[in-house]
Amino acid sequence: MKVLVPIKRVVDFNVKIRVRADGSGVDLANVKMSMNPFDEIAVEEAIRLREAGTAEEIIAVSIGPQKTQETIRTALAMGADRGIFISCDDELEPLGVARLLKCVVEAESPELVILGKQAIDNDCNQTGQMLAALLGWPQGTFASRLELDGGKARVTREVDGGLQTVILKMPCIVTSDLRLNEPRYASLPNIMKAKKKPLEEKPAADYGVDIAPRLKVLKTQEPAAREAGEIVANAAELVEKLQNEAGVI
Amino acid sequence: MAVLLVAEHDNVSLNAATPKAMSAALAIDPDVHILVAGNGCASVGDEAAAITGAAKVLLAEAPHLEHHLAEEMAALAVPLAAQYGAILAPATTTGKNYMPRLAALLDVAQISEITAVKSADTFERPIYAGNAMQTVQSSDAIKIITVRTTAFQAAETGGNAPIEKINVPAPAGLSQFGGDELTSSDRPELASAKVVVSGGRALGSKENFAKFIEPLAGRLNAAVGASRAAVDAGYVSNDYQVGQTGKVVAPELYIAIGISGAIQHLAGMKDSKVIVAINKDEEAPIFQIANYGLVGDLFKILPELQSELEKADG
Would residue A17 count as lying in a domain? Predict the structure, then answer.
């Protein structure tokens, strides 16, 4: 079985981003970039499937500017077998990404696509669901557990009330939530080996699909700031303030 | 053009998220229809019909709609879409599951987790865990929108909209429900509670979490929340997580106990009216957004707080 893992290069989760004062967007100059944390979990899950003998080949795919290749190399260093880099300097919306990924799925015929439930930059939480729709495949989103058996995927999902299990016909799409696994770090020898793994490059335009954005960003602003309050001395003072000053208890 | 709001419910009663999302729908267009899809959910249809501003309720009942599987919900909504200028759902795990699927089937973008309606085609939404707010304008004929319900007041009730039963397409049959493990609690629901008491890794164990957080929550009639670290450590289950990718809450009072305040956690609670932080590290980022901070050992402070609250209650 082939597993396709779409990944995204995003601002590192530890970075506190800065909004440009003129409202034109977020300042990404000289900011540390990493693989989207949910996508790392997806890569790890694919590797575990191969280690368990369920998957034979893992293909990592990413779309973006030239430096996106570094993120694909990270996935290769973790253990993916080969990479596909779709070069594109424009910012894409999830629908455009799903369209390009559909082309890759049709060319590679994986039985399973695993990707992060959400990218921590635009927080859209759409791409997996959209890809499933375009392919006519079932979807198991926000997965905390994945079991494959007899052409079916059993996906335990993290939902608002607790956990829900769905049983999907394969091929299918799974999007990873935080508790699916703990991703490994790439070892130095594996980072060296990853440099020799195949990484195919193709411009987004060559896929011949419509990836034009549907939304126009009018402005990007800082959220309303919250001022730090006061430090109280003890529990008695806290209760007094909550009762008489804030009036919330 | 009319707007369709997809109701969130458990086939028995309407979820509190729906009347809040209704306010977003009404801000787009006064002609709002509510879709109640499920199995044996006529009572939910009645509740939806009572939301002030609802022009009509569409009731879709079938066994394969019982669990709101994305494949079935999207297939149900596609043939309805042409009559509407926008389709909205609350940004719950259910709405977030089927709405992007519906958007792609309709060949339109989705606008995720809107926090304000600027006009019928322009919306505000948070990006980067709420560290930036983006205003976006949609050029699509049908706007597919999920609503961050903490940003909207609940619509009133007292209406009496007509209920129309609609045809349900045959099951897509791609997926099936395999069971659930839902947390049952006597406490208020986390997403809509007036007071939330959240615990972090500093609690140290599942036993301590129960011993120190639960009584305080009980005293304040609060919902219990947790940081990702506390959930990852197994102190409580995933549905307690507050943050960028967990639940977003905005109660009157949020008490963060032993939570340092990672960006991802702040994203889920920084719109709370009053924030209290209790932490032994005075440098913890949580203090930068807290109205009231208490620096010290939580195992000493919490019993004191409990007895002070008892005294205050007289």
Answer: yes
Distance, CA of A7 to CA of B289 (rounded, Å): 33
Query: Alpha-carbon Rg of chain B, whole angstroms?
Result: 21
- What is the tens place of the pLDDT at every residue in A58-87? 999 999 999 999 999 999 999 999 999 999
* Overall pTM > 0.95: yes
Q: List CB contacts (< 8 A) between A164 and chain B.
A: 67, 177, 179-180
A159-218 pLDDT per residue, tens: 999 999 999 999 999 999 999 999 999 999 999 999 999 999 999 999 999 999 999 999
Pairs of residues, one from chain A and one from chain B, whose beta carbons lie less than 8 Å apart: 267
Which of B292, B304, B309 is the mutation pick for testing A, counting most A CBs within 10 A? B292
Domain ranges, residue A106:
2-223
- In whole angstroms, give the CA distance from residue A213 to residue B139: 9
Note whether residue A146 is domain-resident: yes
Indicate yes or no: CB of A163 within 8 angstroms of CB of B238.
yes
Is residue A159 situated within a structural domain? yes
Query: Residues A90-129: pLDDT tens digits?
Result: 999 999 999 999 999 999 999 999 999 999 999 999 999 9
* Domain assignment present for A126: yes
CB-CB neighbors (< 8 A) of B182 in chain A: 161-163
Residues in chain A with CB shorter than 8 Å from the CB of B193 are none
Q: How many domains does one find in chain A?
A: 1
pLDDT digits (tens, 9 = 90+) for B281-290: 999 999 999 9
Task: Say if the Cβ atoms of B132 and A220 lie within 8 Å.
Answer: yes
pLDDT value at B314 more than 80: no
Closest alpha carbon to B24 in B91, B80, B78, B79: B91
pLDDT of residue B184: 87
Residue B145: closest C-alpha in chain A: A124
Interatomic CA distance for residues A209 and A128, integer angstroms = 18
Question: C-alpha distances in angstroms, A124 versus A104, A206, B91, B128?
Answer: 21, 26, 11, 10
Looking up residue A6, the CATH number of its domain turns out to be 3.40.50.620
Partners of residue B119 on adjacent β-strands = B122
Nearest Cα to Cα of residue B77 among B65, B93, B90, B63: B65
